[in-house]
Amino acid sequence: GDSVTQMEGPVTLSEEAFLTINCTYTATGYPSLFWYVQYPGEGLQLLLKATKADDKGSNKGFEATYRKETTSFHLEKGSVQVSDSAVYFCALSDPTSGSRLTFGEGTQLTVNP
Amino acid sequence: DGGITQSPKYLFRKEGQNVTLSCEQNLNHDAMYWYRQDPGQGLRLIYYSQIVNDFQKGDIAEGYSVSREKKESFPLTVTSAQKNPTAFYLCASSISSVNYNEQFFGPGTRLTVL
Lengths: 113, 114
Prior knowledge:
The structure holds two protein chains of two kinds.
Chain A: E1 3-6, E2 11-14, E3 19-21, E4 23-26, E5 32-38, E6 44-50, E7 56-59, E8 62-65, E9 75-77, E10 86-93, E11 102-103, E12 107-112
Parallel strand pairs in A: 2-12
Antiparallel strand pairs in A: 1-4, 3-9, 5-6, 5-10, 7-8, 8-9, 10-11, 10-12
Chain B: E1 4-7, E2 10-13, E3 19-25, E4 31-37, E5 43-51, E6 54-57, E7 64-66, E8 76-78, E9 87-94, E10 104-105, E11 109-113
Parallel strand pairs in B: 2-11
Antiparallel strand pairs in B: 1-3, 3-8, 4-5, 4-9, 5-6, 7-8, 9-10, 9-11
């Protein structure tokens, strides 16, 4: 079945540091890929998405590129802020399963001033 | 404002009691979902509904039940058969479940069984 694996957390960075959170996936078809963010005490919000190979999703300074050859969708940001502290989830949607999402385990990011 | 409402934010119950979690949306979405979130395990799908009066089991449906009598409401009952019910429960909705459509999430309900 489909699965998503994220780098182990938690991740702690200083403000303005470079962020990478690794995400790899296994899927039988050609999935769409997503990053969701969860701020403390809240539900999830869609951060960015990519629907086909080589697509780059971007939002709020975050970027991720759909790499079919390495089955990866790593999240990056050039300069993190304290307000980026949250849990980040990588997810995929297989076209055969409609809107059902398969999530990774989440990565807790803490940014210190 | 359109959105998804879950209530209450915190819920405490004694072991052996059934409890129902509320989820309401005014986005006019056809599809609704229930997820369970545990530390270090991401989100796991409990049940989902593609349309009124229809629902399907997700990956961890045992010990849970749902109903979808109205388009805007998708309550989840955690029964006494659920072995480890203490968790954070998230409800979501999307325009439809045919082809991918963005899921919008509610703020969640944290259930603690004492």
